[in-house]
Write a structure and sequence with these properties.
The chain is α/β, with parallel strands linked by helices. It is built from 19 helices and 17 strands. Helices cover 49% and strands 15% of the residues. A hairpin with a 2-residue loop joins β15 and β16. α12 runs parallel beside α14, α14 runs antiparallel to α16 and α16 packs antiparallel against α17. Bound molecules: 5'-O-[(L-methionyl)-sulphamoyl]adenosine (MSP). 5'-O-[(L-methionyl)-sulphamoyl]adenosine binds next to β2, α1, α7 and β13.
């Protein structure tokens, strides 16, 4: 059986997810559901990133232990993911003891390979990013993301010999041994690697207490990003000891936002090369949800709560709106009013209205609607192209293009009704009426399959209305996407699919 391993970044635990941060995970979930629908064995990993100064500071403010804060916030993440119907296979927490033990072992492995040394580090540090910046990267001495002054820090710590991997990294990215998409991000990365000399990476801290201790010098804690990146390996149950990781390894795709590109496309592959572990096939870097051009984020004070949005639009609709509003690789400005307009246009007047129109027309007759001898060529051709584009667009993570092509198909069906006027055919040409309705019911069955990864429950509701829910459940996409083999006999006009807001 074909397998598919997909990861999202693990989330900083000192907050609850906002709509922007939920974007990566919803996209990953849609992708995971698509591959499961194809009958593939999927492993979808997400989780919470729980160490570091920020978490310790937040716990201190709340007068609780860092672990207690992590437990509370990680539970909150899982609760929100459940609400948003995120079907992860494992939720990894970096304070889990297996993960911690694995990270220590990996550090020992690197030390044994002579890839770690001790030195003094001095630099400009952003507490919110938990990273040092070069003075060139800062804007007026401020971190480019949080717009807060970076502080000058100096500490004795251990370094990973990142610099020796510069040429190898260039080679693997240029040769697409590690695919980085979209092209703009790949170019950005290549130009960074070509124009700058990579420096060795400080991988331990003396001033951060809330972290995994360095095995040979426990006063030092392991740099939170090294700890966090290794979740992609420990999340598969690997303990860092054996040579066999898991047959899910390596990931087919790792999704991430553009703010964490270099961690994933420089440090992460360098660590894997250092450890002789196969690289992920692809990194896909998506854009930001912005509000008036500014990245949505808790520290920016413009975060939208996904739970509140889910209450307004319903979870399935929210998932659809988030992925259909702009191309995945780009930034997109969003607002509740834009979502309202799109909800009404695409879902209420589009899919919901088509379903009601067709069901009302089909209900005129109590006959079974079976495949006609003269299958409408136009439909089977249209559907074949649609599925082909759908699958290739999924491979390229073009979620927005997928939703647009489904919208176009809904429009095609609407025009077909207007042109054929089945309400007249019902009286004048019953056979023709039945053929027309059959094509429309069959189209709705296809639409239920097409929208399933985005809107799993709405898909089921459509199939229920068509009276074929249990038989369709037994199929995989291979058979589901065939045209003209299903009969419809128990059609019922159920509740409105997308109530008008
Ligand atoms: N903890 C690190 C990742 C460690 S992975 C080994 C982290 N966490 S995060 O909570 O800040 O971000 C999680 C994901 O949400 C990232 O992919 C990030 O790019 C994404 N987003 C956070 N805000 C976003 C928007 N406003 N818009 C789209 N995605 C954004 O980074």
């Amino acid at each position: 059986m074909k397998k598919f391993y997909i990861t999202t970044p693990i989330y900083y635990v000192n907050a609850k997810p906002h709509l922007g941060s939920a974007y990566t995970t919803i996209a990953a979930d849609v992708l995971a559901r698509f591959h499961r629908m194809k009958g593939e064995k999927v492993f979808f990993l997400t989780g919470t990133d729980e160490h570091g100064a920020k978490v310790a500071q937040a716990a201190f403010k709340k007068k609780i232990k860092p672990q207690e804060l992590c437990d509370q916030n990680s539970a909150k993440y899982q609760e929100v993911w459940d609400t948003l119907k995120i079907s992860y296979d494992n939720f990894i927490r970096t304070t889990n003891s297996e993960h911690e033990a694995m990270v220590s072992r990996i550090l020992e492995r690197l030390e044994n390979k002579n890839l770690i040394y001790k030195d003094t580090y001095q630099g400009l540090y952003c507490v919110d990013c938990e990273r040092y910046y070069t003075s060139k990267e800062l804007i007026n001495g401020e971190c480019p993301i949080h717009r807060k002054k970076a502080i000058s820090l100096s500490e004795d710590c251990y370094f990973f010999k990142l610099s020796i991997f510069q040429q190898k990294l260039l080679k693997i990215i240029k040769s697409s041994k590690l695919i980085v998409e979209p092209i703009e991000r790949r170019n950005e990365l290549l130009s960074f690697l070509e124009r700058n000399k990579l420096e060795d990476l400080a991988i331990s801290r003396t001033n951060v207490k809330w972290g995994i201790s360095l095995p040979w010098e426990p006063k030092q804690t392991i740099y939170v990003w090294v700890d966090a990146l290794l979740n992609y390996l420990s999340g598969l149950g690997w303990n860092g000891e054996t040579n066999r990781i898991s047959n899910q390894w390596p990931p087919d795709v790792q999704l991430l936002g553009k703010d964490i590109l270099r961690f994933h496309a420089v440090i992460w592959p360098a660590l894997l090369l250092a450890l002789d572990i196969p690289l992920p096939h692809k990194l896909y870097i998506h854009g930001f949800f912005t509000i008036n051009g500014q990245k949505m984020g808790k520290s920016m004070g413009n975060a939208i709560d996904p739970e509140e949005m889910a209450e307004v639009f319903g979870v399935d609709a929210l998932r659809w709106l988030m992925l259909s509003s702009f191309p995945f690789g780009r930034d997109g400005d969003i607002s509740q009013s834009k979502f309202y307009d799109k909800y009404n246009a695409d879902l209420c007047n589009g899919l919901g209205n088509l379903l009601r129109r067709v069901l009302a027309l089909a209900e005129k007759s109590s006959d079974t609607f079976g495949p006609s001898k003269n299958i409408e060529q136009k439909f089977s051709k249209e559907i074949k192209i649609l599925w082909k584009n759908y699958e290739t667009s999924f491979d390229k993570l073009k979620f927005e293009a997928i939703t647009t092509s489904i919208q176009d198909f809904i429009g095609f069906c609407d025009r077909y009704i207007d042109k054929n006027e089945p309400w007249k055919l019902f009286k004048n040409d019953f056979d023709q009426y039945k053929d027309v309705i059959y094509n429309l019911l069959e189209s709705l069955r296809h639409i239920a399959w097409l929208v399933r990864p985005f809107m799993p429950d709405k898909s089921e509701e459509i199939l229920k209305d068509l009276g074929i829910e249990s038989s369709e459940k037994k199929k995989t996409l291979m058979t589901g996407k065939q045209w003209g083999r299903t009969s419809f006999e128990k059609i019922s006009l159920g509740k409105v699919l997308f109530p008008r807001l």
